Amino acid sequence: MMFRHAKKLIAAVGLLASAQASAVVTYANCPTLAPLPVTSFMPAAMQPIYNAENAFDFGMNVTIMTAVRTSREYTNQVVSSSFMTLLQNMTQTDQNNAQQMIEIERQYEEMKASYKNKLKKKQAQSKKMIFPTDEVFDLDVDLDLSSISEDSPTYQFVHKMCTTGKMNQMATGEKAKKRATSDINRRAQKLQASLTAVGSVNSVAKGNIDFHYDIFCSAEDVDNGLCEMESTAPNADISAFNFLYPTGYKDENSASGSDYATLYTYSSVESLAAFQYVKNLSGVLYIVPPTQSEMSNGDMFAYVGAYKQAQSALNLASTALLSVAQNREPINGSGLVMSSLDVINYQITNSSRAEEINRVKSSSEAGKMLELQRQMAISNQLKLLLLRQKDYARQLKAAHLAIDNTIDAPTK
Is the full-model pTM beyond 0.85? Predict the structure, then answer.
């Protein structure tokens, strides 16, 4: 840049000098009159400077052009490298995205398969559950038996089933059957002995009356001077209502927190009264028992046979009545004291409650099936009781018909 300004200054001085002196080359002094090429308007001394400037400009231009070309090439290389890097990054990014999408799809498929498997497992498990929505059956939570709430529907349902099973076992199990049979036979033999093994009918009748005044005296009996004080169970030995619908342990059961009132369970006093009721209802065999000599006398065989027949009929009648009383004897001595009949009535009463009906409705098919089987078991127990009663009725009818035939039979 400095040489360029110097060149301009020198050229201006040269032009000024040429204006005062004659031109070095003119058309007038040219021998040939031919125009010579104008090579420069500067003095000869300025030529080297001009040449140097041209050389410098040329060198600078070459340098600049080289620098520009180099810069351009570098820029192109940088741009190309950046582009390639960017292209590689984009390619890598696309590959990573593709791999991520593949991984996401794989994980999604795994999650979907896991969900379907879990759903199938829960569906299969729910079919076995009583209440599928109960937290007790949450498959994602470890079951802690100690933390199960007694208010949960599953607990209430299972508790009902267990209670029913235990009650039925106590009422109809082998031990219960043996105990009932033993009690009926023992009482029947005692009753039979008291009705037949007597020498005087009046003495037996007086013994029954005295027992009534001693144990079951009523207020009317006290007023009549037949006994000193009224009994806690007045006239219970002659009351059909006490025999069929005893008061039992209602007060004790209510005090224990139970809301069920028994209808068919004897207390200890009512049990004794029931036996006396059967004894009074069967009556006394108003026939003097045959003596040993009469039993061996051929002429008395008809009499002895009729006596034995009446004795058997009374035994049949008393056994049928004792079986009715046995169904009202307690099967347990603690907790909710109930008889076998109250066990059945307890189940029927609980099943008819609104909360129990709603609980069964909200249960699964398995729960409804269990409840149906329980109801069928109760129905079968009732049917068994009816069949036994019908069987005793047929036996009594047959015994009554046999006695009528004996009475109407002609005597020789």
Answer: no
